[in-house]
Amino acid sequence: MCLGEYLKKRRAENNLSLNDVDRYTGIKNSTLSRIENNSNTFPEIKVCILKKLAKLYKINVIELFIKANYLDENDLSSHKKVFQNVEYLKPNEKELIQKIIDAFAEERKVIR
């Protein structure tokens, strides 16, 4: 499924009209319509648009960046190795791990 079709499907799943998206994000309905219909007059989608849509549709922005060809699997390979199986963690476990990472990072800032 291409990016435009995917965005249109996600908008429908969220029961949002083009006007709703415009109202919540400031993305003009004509712009979103061209994106959703894969118009050749809209060859590249601005990152800020993808970020706004990801937030509104409650989807992962990285997934959209991949679908828009801003990222590929090679760009994410080191991330995937570090965070392998993270989807199995509970929110409080993720929060605890993030606090540990933050503590290590802060310690290294002080050492420099």
Write the layout of secondary structure elements.
Elements: H1 3-13, H2 18-25, H3 29-36, H4 47-57, H5 61-67, H6 73-82, H7 91-111
Helix pairs in contact: 2-3
Report on this structure.
By secondary structure, this protein is mostly helical. It folds into two domains: 3-67, Orthogonal Bundle (434 Repressor (Amino-terminal Domain)), CATH 1.10.260.40; 73-111. Helices cover 68% and strands 0% of the residues. The chain has helices spanning 3-13, 18-25, 29-36, 47-57, 61-67, 73-82, 91-111. Helix 2 packs across helix 3. The longest helix is centred in the C-terminal third of the chain and has 21 residues, at 91-111. The radius of gyration is 18 Å and the shape is elongated.
- According to CATH, the homologous superfamily of the largest domain is lambda repressor-like DNA-binding domains
Query: DSSP helix count?
Result: 7
Look up the CATH topology of the largest domain. Answer: 434 Repressor (Amino-terminal Domain)
* CATH architecture tag of the largest domain: Orthogonal Bundle
- Secondary-structure element pattern, one letter each: HHHHHHH
Oligomeric status:
single chain
Q: What Rg do the Cα atoms give?
A: 18 Å
Please indicate the percent range of residues in DSSP E strands (runs of 2 or more).
under 5%
Q: What coarse outline follows from CA principal-axis ratios?
A: elongated
What are the key terms here?
434 Repressor (Amino-terminal Domain), mainly alpha, 112 residues, elongated
